[in-house]
TrEMBL record:
The keyword Membrane applies. Gene3D superfamilies: 2.60.40.650, Oxidoreductase, molybdopterin-binding domain. Residues 467-491 are annotated as: Disordered. Residues 398-468 form the Moybdenum cofactor oxidoreductase dimerisation domain. PANTHER family: SULFITE OXIDASE, MITOCHONDRIAL, SULFITE REDUCTASE. The chain crosses the membrane at residues 12-35, 73-95, 102-125, 131-152, 159-177. Keywords: Membrane, Transmembrane, Transmembrane helix. This is Molybdopterin-dependent oxidoreductase. It holds the Pfam family Oxidored_molyb.
Amino acid sequence: MSRIVTLVRRALPTVLVGVFAGVAGVVGSFAVAGYTPTFVVSPVADLLRTVMPDVVVRYAITVLGSLGQQLNLLTAFLLVIGGIATIAALSLFVGQWLTNRALPVVLTTVGTWGMAVMLTGSLLLSLGAGLAAGAVVLLAVAVPSLPIATGIDEDRRTVLATALSVLGLSAGGYVLGTQRTTTPESLSRTEQIQRLLDDADAKSLGVTGIEPLVSETFYEVDYSAVNPAVDGDDWTLTVTGAVEREVTYTLDDLTSMQSEDRFETLRCVGEDLNGHKMDNALWTGVPIMDLVERANPHSGCGCVMLRAADDYYEEFPIAAMENGLLAYGMNGTELPRAHGHPARALIPGHWGEINVKWLTEIEILDREVDGYWEKRGWHGTGPVNTVAKLHAVNDLDDGRTEVGGHAYAGTRGIRSVEVSTDSGGTWTEATLSAELPGDDVWRQWRYAYDPPTGSHEVVVRAIDGTGARQSSERSGAFPSGPTGWVAQTID
């Protein structure tokens, strides 16, 4: 037993240096690649997503929400760090065995570079991971020979020096990597865009605790753990499949066409009933069907597949695209990378999953096939369910209680929102924000009342533009989106 403990103690400094080299390798990759698909962690996260059983994916979406993707990314980080750490530690052990100090540095650098190349396919950018990991190992083998007068033994000096070097590398790598993340540039902001944004600001009810009519932060749900970094100068969109002729467009083609500015709301099919994955923005783009019709489509099933730069794909009826927009701008700026730069689809009234980002292909189909999420049991390509969300509870200066939120029913619109302060016994109509121009836009609602003594339950429900009341039947997000009335107990 004591011999095992001794071996572990001897090996521990080498293992720790290996871990530090693993962290350095990830940081080095980030420094040269940024948070892009060529970042060494990205392909591992994508692989985990691909091999994960559907039931696990469903649990992550419906129970963990955004945390599920973050855990997937964290796992990918740990696996990559562990892989580089193993390479570095084995290289150090080989060097110790052969009493060759140069060999561990070479083996770590080349081994880490080779691992990164296999993962990312990039010979040049993979050098960032290899050189950073090799630098840590170089320091580890160099420290014992340095003439440093200290009471710290050799192994501890090595571990401490490499740990400090990783801290420095991490700071520098973070700065370099974040500089590679582009920020959206302003479009030529027309009077129309400014007028529409000002109009939305004026129509917001100003309820504390809820987003204004144009969301300040827009939710993000992606198929990939790391967003594609698509260069607008190289990007093309092609209409393919059951067409008389294929047609390809560049970003310059789009921006030279007559543009439209539209308010449109998006809602995630996998969110909680009263979740926050529903937002609104002012989008700039061109009608999708103007692009499709130039190819003279002749689908045998009346359906289409949209494909993205990150290999995501979704199928739905062509009829749903009739009022669709191919957007390249958002709130007066270029479309941000996180929301599909350089162009994305906006399909009015449908769940967020078919509003494909980083769009590269519109394939007209002759027969129906399942999209990515439909293969996993979801049925989110249909029109959104009506919902009234309750996100704000405020105590007013006059002693009343104010509740508020947003209501959304896709292209059906919202006619009214009703509020009950006695668990559904009686109902009163809430105040609605004035409508924004557009066929697919949410509305804010607000209601103030004199609260009863003690706790009470507030329930809200919406009535859409056709006069249909939001369903009271509660269901989870899977497979067709959440339904039910939102209720909250207020003390």
